Amino acid sequence: MNSISKFVPKFDRELSERLKRLENNGKSFRVLEFSMKVAFDGICDMLTSITDASTLDQLEHDITYVTDAMLSFPLKIPGARYYRGMKARERLIETFKAKITKRRNGEEVSDDFLQSMLQRDSYPPNEKLDDEEIVDNLLTLIIAGQSTTAAAIMWCVKFLDENKQVQDRLREEQLQILRNKPAGALLKYEDLMSMSYGSKVVKETLRMSNVLLWYPRVALDNCTIEGYEIKKGWNVNIDATQIHYDPDTYKDPMRFNPSRFDEMQKPYSYIPFGSGPRTCLGINMAKVTMLVFLHRLTSGYTWTVDDEDLSLERKAHIPRLQSGCPITLTRLDDTSITNS
Ligand code: HEM
Question: Sorted alphabetically, which Pfam families does this protein's record hold (predicted)?
Answer without folding.
Answer: p450 (PF00067)
